[in-house]
Amino acid sequence: MIQAIAFYLFAAIVILAGAMTISSRNPVHSVMWLILAFFNAAGLMVLVGAEFIAMLLVIVYVGAVAVLFLFVVMMMDIDFAQLRTEVARYAAIGLGLGALLAVEVMIAAFAWNSGKVHLGRRVAPIDPAMPNIQALGHLLYSRYLFLFEAAGFILLVAMIGAIVLTHRERTGTRPQNVSRQVARRPEDATRNVKPPVGQGVEL
Amino acid sequence: MTDFFNSTIGLPYGWAWFLATIIGILVIALPLMLAVAMIIYADRKIWAAMALRRGPNVVGPLGLLQSFADGLKVFLQETIVPAAANRGLFLMAPIITFTVALIVWAVVPFAPGVVLADINVGLLYVLAASSLGVYGIILSGWASNSKYPFYSALRAAAQMVSYEVAIGFVLISVVLWSGSFNLSKIVEAQRAVWPIIPVNGFGFNPLLFPMAVVFLISALAETQRAPFDLTEAESELVAGYQTEYSSMSFALFWLGEYANVILMCTLNATLFWGGWLPPVDWAPLYLVPGIIWLFAKMLFFFFVFSWIKATVPRYRYDQLMRLGWKVFLPLSLFWVFLVSGVLMYYRVGI
């Protein structure tokens, strides 16, 4: 009963938030609706018992990716009038993509109604009592170790590539040298003098 | 409590669970609000004592009711929304900050078995919820449509994202050592970490002690407490992201901030100093209820936070970023390797 209520609540909010993401005028509002959609999708994941995936969805997408989206969108100089003219230009592509997705969903629904797919055999049977974070860990670090490491390696290369592409040597700047600042003592910067009365100190 | 509603009163399991959870939420959230009010008072008193002042001493005996008087005052004020502000998001931002500060408490174990949600991804839940905290601040800065709040929001976002990375690696060392993401199991794993003097807490383990220090400092940065309170640096940014706020919307930021501070103190106690276990694994100490040990540790760390706030000057922004990315990130990453290496050597024997 409560599961059903929770499912319909999350599912309805995901759909509503998705619709609002593409229809709201202000891009910042769009990102906020997107975050709401991510969040409720995480709720759906929890309902099917994939709590690890749900937490990853929130940490990675809501906590990191969407923050970057929001950052970029907030920095934009938004011209609402121009945004509306662009809508007409891209409407055909958008509608085409939407129709494609709708057809795919329909095909999936028909295929699902006609009976489930028979998998040949399960390559890695999982103990149902094991929490799925452990089950994933066992699978990733034993059977799929090389694929997992390769994925990590590709991400590392991508990161280094991004740094190489965007890094430029700046000349003429005077950056803070923290170790020199820390090493500086009062004796290096100040001097204690006792000038004779009426003569003052030299400039 | 679910069993009580289910078997004694005879509700169906679903509704019994629902009712028990709602009661659990109230039992945690309402005392938390009281604790926040008192901890603000304690903060001001400690701060005053270190500056040789008296601190709040007018409202109630010893000024104990000061926070409630302040609360009543802001409650009676008018909520002002700037004309150029984005009204909806402007009012939503403090609610997000406040809510996020409350939801993390669901997985904090107060005593053996006394936890609202004993989930096996507890620590990931803490990370997920704390990564949401940044939205309240970014949104308040943007929706205010004013330059100082916006600068503050940018600073806050960069700061929180940077220090979350270090916190993530520190948590991985803890998880590796305890072998679980469940906070109750992490506390259990801290029983008698030394064979000779049986002290409870990963912090007493010399290998994990540096991570406890990194976590404490990152917690300061994550909650934007001094010396990392650049988001509300009053000499440059007026009051930071809360500049345009008034009345209850301002109070919600205030409550959320202090609820976060208490949470970080509690997490410090839970992850590194044994949570509800007494400091030493010695039978008579177990006569004291676990929740008292947890609160004692939490209050100790709160005192440390206040102490730091009263004595350490504010960092410069480049120093803050340098500490996060060039010191804590490599250090905690190296520690993940070190801890896993030591564990492989001792537990697996390779």
From TrEMBL, chain A:
<feature type="transmembrane region" description="Helical">
    <location>
        <begin position="56"/>
        <end position="78"/>
    </location>
</feature>
<feature type="transmembrane region" description="Helical">
    <location>
        <begin position="90"/>
        <end position="112"/>
    </location>
</feature>
<feature type="transmembrane region" description="Helical">
    <location>
        <begin position="31"/>
        <end position="50"/>
    </location>
</feature>
<keyword id="KW-0874">Quinone</keyword>
<comment type="similarity">
    <text>Belongs to the complex I subunit 6 family.</text>
</comment>
<feature type="region of interest" description="Disordered">
    <location>
        <begin position="174"/>
        <end position="203"/>
    </location>
</feature>
<dbReference type="GO" id="GO:0048038">
    <property type="term" value="F:quinone binding"/>
</dbReference>
<keyword id="KW-1133">Transmembrane helix</keyword>
<dbReference type="InterPro" id="IPR042106">
    <property type="entry name" value="Nuo/plastoQ_OxRdtase_6_NuoJ"/>
</dbReference>
<keyword id="KW-0520">NAD</keyword>
<feature type="transmembrane region" description="Helical">
    <location>
        <begin position="6"/>
        <end position="24"/>
    </location>
</feature>
<feature type="transmembrane region" description="Helical">
    <location>
        <begin position="144"/>
        <end position="165"/>
    </location>
</feature>
<keyword id="KW-1003">Cell membrane</keyword>
<keyword id="KW-0472">Membrane</keyword>
<dbReference type="GO" id="GO:0008137">
    <property type="term" value="F:NADH dehydrogenase (ubiquinone) activity"/>
</dbReference>
<dbReference type="InterPro" id="IPR001457">
    <property type="entry name" value="NADH_UbQ/plastoQ_OxRdtase_su6"/>
</dbReference>
<protein>
    <recommendedName>
        <fullName>NADH-quinone oxidoreductase subunit J</fullName>
        <ecNumber>7.1.1.-</ecNumber>
    </recommendedName>
</protein>
<dbReference type="Pfam" id="PF00499">
    <property type="entry name" value="Oxidored_q3"/>
</dbReference>
<comment type="function">
    <text>NDH-1 shuttles electrons from NADH, via FMN and iron-sulfur (Fe-S) centers, to quinones in the respiratory chain. Couples the redox reaction to proton translocation (for every two electrons transferred, four hydrogen ions are translocated across the cytoplasmic membrane), and thus conserves the redox energy in a proton gradient.</text>
</comment>
<keyword id="KW-0812">Transmembrane</keyword>
<dbReference type="GO" id="GO:0005886">
    <property type="term" value="C:plasma membrane"/>
</dbReference>
From TrEMBL, chain B:
<comment type="similarity">
    <text>Belongs to the complex I subunit 1 family.</text>
</comment>
<keyword id="KW-0812">Transmembrane</keyword>
<comment type="function">
    <text>NDH-1 shuttles electrons from NADH, via FMN and iron-sulfur (Fe-S) centers, to quinones in the respiratory chain. The immediate electron acceptor for the enzyme in this species is believed to be ubiquinone. Couples the redox reaction to proton translocation (for every two electrons transferred, four hydrogen ions are translocated across the cytoplasmic membrane), and thus conserves the redox energy in a proton gradient. This subunit may bind ubiquinone.</text>
</comment>
<comment type="subunit">
    <text>NDH-1 is composed of 14 different subunits. Subunits NuoA, H, J, K, L, M, N constitute the membrane sector of the complex.</text>
</comment>
<feature type="transmembrane region" description="Helical">
    <location>
        <begin position="285"/>
        <end position="307"/>
    </location>
</feature>
<dbReference type="GO" id="GO:0005886">
    <property type="term" value="C:plasma membrane"/>
</dbReference>
<feature type="transmembrane region" description="Helical">
    <location>
        <begin position="251"/>
        <end position="273"/>
    </location>
</feature>
<dbReference type="GO" id="GO:0009060">
    <property type="term" value="P:aerobic respiration"/>
</dbReference>
<feature type="transmembrane region" description="Helical">
    <location>
        <begin position="123"/>
        <end position="144"/>
    </location>
</feature>
<feature type="transmembrane region" description="Helical">
    <location>
        <begin position="156"/>
        <end position="177"/>
    </location>
</feature>
<keyword id="KW-0874">Quinone</keyword>
<protein>
    <recommendedName>
        <fullName>NADH-quinone oxidoreductase subunit H</fullName>
        <ecNumber>7.1.1.-</ecNumber>
    </recommendedName>
</protein>
<keyword id="KW-1003">Cell membrane</keyword>
<feature type="transmembrane region" description="Helical">
    <location>
        <begin position="327"/>
        <end position="346"/>
    </location>
</feature>
<feature type="transmembrane region" description="Helical">
    <location>
        <begin position="89"/>
        <end position="111"/>
    </location>
</feature>
<dbReference type="InterPro" id="IPR018086">
    <property type="entry name" value="NADH_UbQ_OxRdtase_su1_CS"/>
</dbReference>
<dbReference type="GO" id="GO:0048038">
    <property type="term" value="F:quinone binding"/>
</dbReference>
<dbReference type="GO" id="GO:0016655">
    <property type="term" value="F:oxidoreductase activity, acting on NAD(P)H, quinone or similar compound as acceptor"/>
</dbReference>
<keyword id="KW-0520">NAD</keyword>
<keyword id="KW-0472">Membrane</keyword>
<dbReference type="GO" id="GO:0003954">
    <property type="term" value="F:NADH dehydrogenase activity"/>
</dbReference>
<keyword id="KW-1278">Translocase</keyword>
